[in-house]
TrEMBL record, chain A:
All residue ranges annotated as the Heme-copper oxidase subunit III family profile domain in the record: 30-218
Keywords: Membrane, Oxidoreductase, Transmembrane, Transmembrane helix
Gene Ontology MF: a single term: cytochrome-c oxidase activity
E.C. number(s) listed in UniProt: 1.9.3.1
Broad class of where this protein is predominantly found: membrane
Protein name as catalogued: Cytochrome c oxidase subunit 3
GO biological process: aerobic electron transport chain
TrEMBL record, chain B:
Pathway(s) it belongs to: Energy metabolism; oxidative phosphorylation
Lineage, uppermost ranks: Bacteria, Pseudomonadati, Acidobacteriota, Vicinamibacteria, Vicinamibacterales
Name used for this protein in its record: Cytochrome c oxidase subunit 1
Function: Cytochrome c oxidase is the component of the respiratory chain that catalyzes the reduction of oxygen to water. Subunits 1-3 form the functional core of the enzyme complex. CO I is the catalytic subunit of the enzyme. Electrons originating in cytochrome c are transferred via the copper A center of subunit 2 and heme A of subunit 1 to the bimetallic center formed by heme A3 and copper B.
Cytochrome oxidase subunit I profile domain residues: 26-537
Keyword Transmembrane appears in the UniProt entry: yes
């Protein structure tokens, strides 16, 4: 054990200001968890707003949610859960040092993420053609519910847009990770970036698990 | 511990500066702009935060010049709105919030716990770039003609009415907010994972405790204001409706979300200052801080309760009576941990061998001004009184006493206290003492009359006031005169501290004879902070009495 720690201390990934690789991993993991806490609060502002207006405009929200395509939403939920699964498998592969599996699962994650975003584009464009985008051209079949419906769609675009931004960001991080994985940078001694990215990806997934019922089903 | 004060040393044993230290270890602009050394990043912040302070100060002087006469003769109402907004935005987001954490915290957190650097040096550098990006947005706004919403961006004015540059300003604050989040994250992780052997939680300097509490607020509050500013931007640009009553939105919701951050944010400003004061008071009384544990826990208490009182900014809105009474009660509660600190500093001073060096003068000024500011906070937390003085100069005076009297004085005190460590040089003590006195006098002359003005009913944010109210003009002239004195007091340190950095005598590792890890390494410290990792065997503030 003492040998392996001494060995780990010379790992190329060990940065100068840490004493051991273990200390470095603890720091990174703690940092990621705290970052996710800040993310929860970031989305929290939107969720708070949603709760308040849901309460004020219950009927409008109910009616407006019928305009969303539940099937597309359901499909996307499945896609996202699938990507969470491939990501979890990628983390496992990085720990066991199975390089080709790691690369494959990371690519699959990226693909599934892109499918999700592609479906989102279809959904958004449907809203445009149905004049459901808030602003001067907003139309709603029931004029008495229009104000609430407009707020509903503001929240829809705000929340799913923020979520999609997180997905896009994740995609941009995945690409270099795939390259690094293909070059064999990760293995049992050091897989922190993969593990941390996995946490991030699951977080984005969980946010959707809340968004889907709130926006599509209620 | 070598208790001989440097200025009493004879030349034969005069301290010298180490040959290689963090300032001269590498050379060239790139070695600064791409540095990952927390100490150099602290200096990058020092330069940029000071510049913003100067900009904010110029706007403050414009405000005071305008108000010296009752007529709106210097600035039009429109320009005046832009001037006080620029003052508020720059001072709050680009000076008060980053000043102590980003400069002193960055420099000292690793040193004080015996670490080689912060946990994430690259994120630390990125934080500075985020801060600068936010600042550049702010500067761009000023060049393009300014913004007139006030630093609080109240809706629906900010989203539907104002035709000034709200979007870019909000984005600037948004980006700077992420700088603050990442700084907090870095501190928390560093304090958790990188303490030197023996640096247990109950031995952490109070400066570290206060930064720990501050970091929690930065991480838990800032994201909420960030997303709120994002909603403002979305409402303005894409007409997504969140707060606009025309679209069925609720402007008071904006205030709730805004103050959920911005009340705790006042503690982002003042808690690090309290940490500074604890260090200075201990060092210059040669005693451990009285009730160390209580002071440490009070920091966490302030952070916690600070999140529960935001509604006291909304006593005059449609908020329900029950909510108002609850927020009022909770606001009184938050005074308790602050009072604990003030009492414990006083108890530390009591019967200490108090040395009135310049940092100590600032610290004593802090305690006085912060107490006045805090007590008037209690006036405001009482609903009936608040309705009388809400949005008057009484509020302006209150928050300047706590933010300027508190944060700024602590910042200056800390800068003086650690300047020998940062630069390795001693500054002129007589000049430093003089400027501390000028700041104190100028400050009180500026802001005390504003309490009276507010109580008499002068509203804030107006560029003119009735000429018949002669006493109003007298008080305003006093205030403007005080502002000029204050400006002099703030300008002097710029000169003698800069001079000292180049021409001062070498300070040696521990010119104050203070206790703490940062004083055990050379001044300036080497890039890796310590030649060998220190091992801590004694509690914080181990000023053994028999040595004096
Ligand atoms: C500790 C440091 C404190 C700081 C830096 C601070 C800062 C501020 C600021 C900036 C404002 C004005 C916000 C604006 O409208 O632009 C304000 C208002 C207020 N503060 Fe404080 N404050 C502090 C402590 C307290 C305490 C301890 C209390 C109560 C116990 C308090 C109660 C209030 C209330 C009720 C207002 C609203 C007044 C009104 O707008 O009518 N403050 N404070
Ligand atoms: Cu407040």
């Amino acid at each position: 054990m003492s040998h392996s720690t001494a060995h780990a201390a010379h790992h190329p990934a060990l940065q100068h200001h840490f004493d051991t690789l273990e200390q470095q991993q603890n720091a990174s993991t703690l940092g990621m968890w705290w970052f996710l806490v800040t993310e929860v609060l970031f989305f929290g502002g939107f969720f708070m707003t949603y709760i308040l207006y849901r309460w004020m405009y219950n009927a409008s929200f109910h009616e407006a949610s019928h305009e969303l395509n539940v099937w597309l939403g359901l499909f996307n939920t499945a896609v996202l859960i699938g990507s969470s699964l491939t990501m979890a498998l990628a983390v496992r592969a990085s720990k066991t040092g199975e390089k080709s599996q790691l690369v494959m699962f990371l690519i699959l994650t990226l693909l599934l993420g892109s499918v999700f975003l592609g479906v989102k584009v279809i959904e958004y464009s449907e809203k445009f053609t149905h004049h459901l985008v808030p602003g001067a051209h907003f139309q709603f079949h029931d004029a008495t519910l229009k104000n609430g419906a407009e707020i509903y769609f503001s929240l829809y675009f705000g929340m799913t847009g923020l979520h999609a931004t997180h997905m896009i960001f994740g995609g941009f991080v995945l690409v270099p990770l795939i390259v690094m994985a293909a070059r064999g940078k990760f293995g049992p001694a050091w897989y922190t970036p993969i593990e941390l990215f996995g946490l991030y990806w699951h977080f984005v997934d969980i946010v959707w698990i809340f968004l889907f019922p709130l926006l599509y089903l209620m | 511990m070598h208790e001989v004060r440097t200025n009493e040393l004879d030349s034969s044993s005069a301290p010298t500066t180490p040959a290689v230290h963090y300032l001269n270890a590498t050379h060239g602009a790139a070695s600064w702009f791409f540095t990952k050394d927390h100490k150099r990043i602290a200096l990058l912040y020092l330069y940029s935060v000071s510049t913003f302070f100067l900009v904010g100060g110029i706007f403050a002087m414009l405000v005071r010049l305008e108000l010296a006469t009752p007529r709106g003769d210097l600035l039009s109402a429109e320009t005046y709105n832009k001037v006080f907004t620029a003052h508020g935005v720059v001072m709050v987001f680009f000076f008060l919030i980053p000043a102590i954490p980003a400069i002193l915290g960055n420099f000292l957190v690793p040193l004080m716990i015996g670490a080689k650097d912060l946990a994430f040096p690259r994120i630390n550098l990125a934080s500075w770039y985020l801060y600068m990006t936010g600042g550049l947005f702010g500067v761009a706004v000023l060049v393009m003609g300014g913004v007139d919403t006030g630093w609080t961006f109240y809706t629906p004015y900010s989203t539907a009415a104002s035709n000034s540059h709200v979007v870019l300003t909000a984005l600037g604050a948004f980006v700077a907010g992420f700088s603050s989040i990442f700084t907090g994250l870095n501190f928390i992780v560093t304090i958790h994972t990188m303490r030197a052997p023996g640096m247990t939680w109950d031995r952490l300097p109070l400066f570290i405790w206060s930064h720990y509490a501050t970091s929690l607020i930065m991480m838990l509050g800032t994201p909420v204001v960030a997303v709120t500013l994002m909603m403002v931007v979305l409402e303005r640009t894409l007409r997504l409706g969140f707060f606009n009553p025309d679209l069925g939105g609720d402007p008071v919701l904006f205030q709730h979300l805004f103050w959920f951050y911005s009340h705790p944010a006042v503690y982002i400003m003042v808690l690090p200052g309290m940490g500074v004061i604890s260090e200075i008071v201990a060092a210059f009384s040669r005693k451990p801080v009285f009730g160390y544990k209580m002071v440490a826990m009070a920091s966490l208490g302030i952070a916690l309760i600070g999140f529960l009182v935001w509604g006291h900014h909304m006593f005059t809105t449609s908020q329900s009576v029950l909510a108002a009474v609850t927020f009022s009660f909770l606001s009184f509660l938050v005074a308790i941990p602050s009072a604990i600190k003030v009492f414990n500093w006083t108890a530390t001073l009591y019967r200490g061998s108090v040395l009135l060096d310049s940092p100590m003068l600032y610290a004593i000024g802090f305690i006085g001004l912060f107490t006045i500011g805090g007590l008037t906070g209690l006036f405001l937390a009482a609903i009936g009184l608040d309705i009388h003085v809400h949005d008057t100069y009484f509020v302006v005076a209150h928050f300047h006493y706590v933010m300027v009297g508190g944060t700024l004085l602590a910042y200056l005190g800390g800068l003086h206290y650690w300047w020998p460590k940062i630069t390795g040089k001693l500054y002129s003590e007589p000049w430093a003492k003089t400027s501390a006195v000028i700041v104190f006098v100028g400050f009180n002359l500026t802001f005390f009359p504003q309490f009276v003005l507010g109580y008499m009913g002068m509203p804030r944010r107006y560029h003119a006031y009735p000429a018949e109210e002669l006493s109003w003009q007298v008080l305003n002239v006093l205030s403007s005169a005080g502002a000029s004195i204050l400006a002099i007091g703030l300008f002097l340190p710029l000169i003698y501290l800069t001079y000292a950095a180049f021409r001062g005598r070498p300070a040696g590792p521990n010119p104050w004879g203070a206790y703490g890890l940062e004083w055990e390494t050379t001044s300036p410290p080497p890039t890796a902070n310590f030649e060998v990792t220190p091992i801590v065997t004694k509690p914080a503030y181990y000023y053994a009495p028999e040595e004096h």
